[in-house]
Amino acid sequence: MPEPLAVPLRRTRAGLGAATALVVAALTVATVTFAVVANSHPAAAVTKHRVLFDDTKAETAGNADWIISTSIPDPTAQKASPTVETDWTGAISAWGVALQKTGNYTLDTLAPGKTITYGDSSNAQDLSNFDEFVLPEPNVLLSAAEKTAVMTFIKNGGGLFLISDHTGSDRNNDGADSPKIINDLMTNNTVDSTDPFGFSVDLLNIASGFPTAISDSTNPVLHGSYGTVTAGALYNGTTVTLHPADNSSAKGLLYLTSATPGGTTGAFFATSTFGSGRVAIWGDSSDIDDGTGQSGNTLYNGWNDANATDAQLGLNATEWLAGSGTTTTPTPPPPPPPDPPPPTSTSCTAAQLLSNPGFESGSGTGWTASSGVISTSSSEPPRTGSYDAWLDGYGTATTDTLSQAVTVPATCSTASMSFWLHVDTAETSTSTAYDTLTVQVLNSSGTVLSTLATFSNLSAATGYQQHSYSLAAYAGQAITVKFTGTEGSKLQTSFVLDDTALNVS
After folding, report:
1. Which one of 349, 441, 488, 503 has the lowest number of neighbouring Cβ atoms within 10 Å?
2. Which residues pair with residue 266 across a beta bridge?
3. Parallel, antiparallel or unpaired: strands 49-54 and 132-136
4. Taking the model in full, what pTM does it have?
5. For residues 423 and 298, what is the distance between their CA atoms, to the nearest angstrom?
6. Cα(360)–Cα(363) distance, integer angstroms
7. How far separated are the first and last CA of the chain, in Å rounded?
8. 27-67 pLDDT, tens digit each
9. What residue ranges in 434-487 does DSSP mark as E strands?
10. Sign of the dihedral through C-alpha 110, 224, 303, 277
11. Torsion of CA 79, 221, 202, 273, to 10 degrees
12. pLDDT per position as a tens digit, 152-184
């Protein structure tokens, strides 16, 4: 994707009203209608392919927007049965919607702030619950534990889809771009660092071109359910170098026109296997970009580039990487340990159970919160007192949380949680939820029992509004009430809480 190497300035909370603009040279591409690609796939659902898209590695930093939907983790919460790519919001929503329309896929997004795991039964989005993991141009290095998780996932039969961009494409200015991050995954892990996939990402910035597909009529990625692949599109991307001596399964499928088809250099799209799993890598994020996304981003429609077959390539590769899929529901994690027995008393003492309900004792008392959430900032004044809890409002891809554990007495017949919420935003859309605040109830093991409400930039209003929800269903249980604010990469939304309460009687 073409972009300047400088990272645009981001708003801070001190300047919430100002909008950040990034001016990028426009790229004109012809458009192929989305319906043509989607309708070319057989309609019958045979198996369910479970695909997890990553959004933990700054995939919406700078001018990127590599998400299938702003509804995270479940894109169907934005629209259960999308018919056009704009039914979901994100620069790779065309990819997600095309898969969803077949009825053969279960799609999820790993939210910012989450961790990539494998074998963690307490994590519903653990890689063991999926057939395929997509890393769409990561901009943060994976931790040692995350690299072990990814490599083990592939070795045990999972599919990994890597999308790189050109060298120097460090969108969040943390010193690591996608070529560095992908190469680090392959060369610095605890499972196999000896060139496990048989390829490495080249540190190049190739301005333009249309790499062509090799001649192989039996290849399922080049000739799959979604059509025949003839070419890709290069708009500031890179290539990979193959090392067949290290892994003989490494295979280049698309090559620069200046390279030798089937050779070891100049491969724009390549596949490989590792253990029982499969790997694919694409050399440019411009190809997955459908030209639409969150407000304020400058994007390009490479997915439907008339000079390439990027949609067919991406969808065929997704299908190949997911393997045979699954016809059964993944084994759920073991149930949490039973809650302690209820008190023997049959009477209820009316009480307000939350500690530090108005946040006047500051951080560290009662609540567990992201850094800086509980504050006395005059930019977002409290409803009463001196303190409030201010989630998000940065204008960058950020997740803030606020939570408190509490036990609801078994002897009380009513339990009601209330809070006052003020939402202000710089978003201009009147129909799309770019930034969200979820209110949830979790059990003592961290499993979500209920989502009480979801607010968004569309909830913006003057002043505070009170909201109240019954928690009577959790009488006798140790629970956690949790607020999670998730903000997109452009234009701030602030979720400000004050005067909370959990009253029982």
Report:
1. 349
2. none
3. parallel
4. 0.59
5. 26
6. 9
7. 59
8. 333 333 333 333 444 433 346 899 999 999 999 988 899 99
9. 436-442, 448-456, 465-470, 478-487
10. positive
11. 100
12. 999 999 999 999 999 999 998 999 999 999 999
